[in-house]
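Hi R.,

Here's the chain you asked about this morning:
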Amino acid sequence: MFVVSRSRFFEIYNKRSRMETAFMYFIWVFRQALLIFTLYLKVA
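And the predicted structure, written out as tokens:
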């Protein structure tokens, strides 16, 4: 899953500007962190 998203990230990186790609990558990382945080709250 991570490998697929990584290849997609580079695909987007080639098509778009550096700023836009960094922004999209930041949103993706933020979503992952939010998901892990939610799971942590459910467990705790």
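The longest helix spans residues 18-43.

Let me know if you need anything else.
M.
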